[in-house]
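Good morning N.,

You mentioned wanting to compare the apo and holo forms, so I went ahead and generated the holo version with adenosine-5'-triphosphate. This is what I fed in:
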Amino acid sequence: MKGFEKPVLEIKNLNKQFGKGCSDCCDINEKKLEKNYCPECGTVYACQDISFELYGGEILGVVGESGSGKSTMMKCLYFDQEVTKGEGYLSSYKDGLMNIFNESSQQKRYIRNHVLGKVYQNPMLGLKMNFSSIGNIAQKLIAAGYRSVRDMESRGIDLLNHVNIPVFRMKEPPKNFSGGMQQRVQIAKALSNNPPVLLLDEVTTGLDLSVQANVLDLIKKIQRELGISMIVVSHDLAVIRMLANRTIVMLDGRIIEKGLTDQILEDPQHPYTQQLVHSLLV
Amino acid sequence: MKISYNFAFFDEGSKREIRRAALKAVAIPGYQVPFASREMPIARGWGTGGLQLTLSLIGKDDVIKVIDQGSDESVNAVNIKKLIKKTTGVEQTEKTSKASIIQSRHRIPEVPLNEEQILVLQVPIPEPLRLVEPSEYKTKRLHAENDYSGAWLMLFEQIMKYGSMSTGADHPVLVYGRYVMAPSPIPRFDNPKLTCSKALILLGAGREKKIYAVPPYTEVVSLAFDDYPFRVESFENKKCRICGATEVFMDEIIDEKTGMASYQCNDTSYCLKKLNNSADNQGGDISERI
Ligand SMILES: Nc1ncnc2c1ncn2[C@@H]1O[C@H](COP(=O)(O)OP(=O)(O)OP(=O)(O)O)[C@@H](O)[C@H]1O
Ligand SMILES: [Mg+2]
Ligand SMILES: [Zn+2]
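and this is what came out, ligand included:
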């Protein structure tokens, strides 16, 4: 039963704001906000009191409209951005006893290199477009401590096989590849250090539908075969429906609904979720 | 009209500021210390970083040697020497062993340096991660967090492309187990001379406004993989056509008529010294043999 199982990742009250805040918006009891920002001082409250658990082998979906704070949350989880406050515990890092957000920047880098993988919507952020594809994978392996070229090459070839990139193209730079292939290389790179947690932010957005379906199939295959826990962010409920066991719905930086994906689809509680589900059906 | 210069061109305040950066560099081996690089009557990119270090350190009793890619007589070396001469009047030499300060571009002299000497290397690109990461903000962070996967990646890419680590020059090194450093475009052949050097080695980049250092007796390791160890350029079975030296860094000379390759010392003062020594011993005439 989920209740007794220790989560792979536990997030408590994650907050991320852009700006200092003012007397109008700092009052916790009565923040006078317009959507997610303060009209008085312009501070953006991109993530407010986000809490959730991610369990072993599951895919957790995060859905919400543009600007709801999905990417900001993912950036905080991967330490691309610093949280304003909040707690995070990874079971595979110091037995889940240390708040990862309070660790030193060197420790955070260690966590990124050994415990996490991330796939960005924009492949330019996740890959070095001018370096070889195998080199892109190798960089993550090097960061995780590999020092044998032969080991990295064979691991890289395995991964490229896994994501269906022809191995004879491994020395080509990702800039030669189509959008779908670039995402596959990103996924291979993110998987290279065997991370217990994989973060995917809008990885199929902007791809053709058929290519999108291929990448989604790949993600499902990875979950099935490798049992890696994933957080999948998308503004597209159809993507979430296909992948996620459980889903979080975000609006204006807050979680407004969470539960089993099927349940949310069948019986949405919040008016925003209802609207979202409705638009999926028409 | 006679223009009067400050001794060593700069005012004392400027020199002190450069020395302060150099001291910090010595205190944190391999770490790039920013400094307020000054305008000079020599274009940036022509060794102004090294020159500023030299001028900040030089005293009346110093003996200076300037080399450019192994040669004491290139235009660049001559210009720098002229400026030093004009503003300090200190003694100049071509003999490595006689110099107290050696300013060099692209080479470390063949003659082992001693504790009384300072080697100043001119640096065009001080950042070893620049090719993988164009942003200075990000490279600073990578250094701080000890993430050098980018430097290794460059070597990995060379192996993928050419089957071996083919850095012609500027092969990255790990200094004192902490900072990865660009040794300036010296050939790989010279990398081993950096480790546990008896002389202080200072590196200056004028355009990029950075000073860094390898203090005496500091461990410097060239980056390499377990299955692709670091190797210097090999001159096995080759000897200098002028002085007969082996186990030195040599330039390949192609005879235009025959297309035959021959080799000669890249360090010309070393070559000349070796030649003089053997000429002394044999009583021969140098000019006959060149
Ligand atoms: N660096 C920043 N400085 C200021 N505001 C920011 C910054 N980054 C994001 N924001 C704001 O934070 C809020 C959340 O943005 P975020 O990118 O997380 O949304 P999202 O849910 O990922 O949207 P999308 O579906 O468009 O990707 C937005 O209001 C955005 O304008
Ligand atoms: Mg986003
Ligand atoms: Zn405010």
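Chain A has a mean pLDDT of 93.

Happy to go through it together on a call whenever suits you.

Best,
F.
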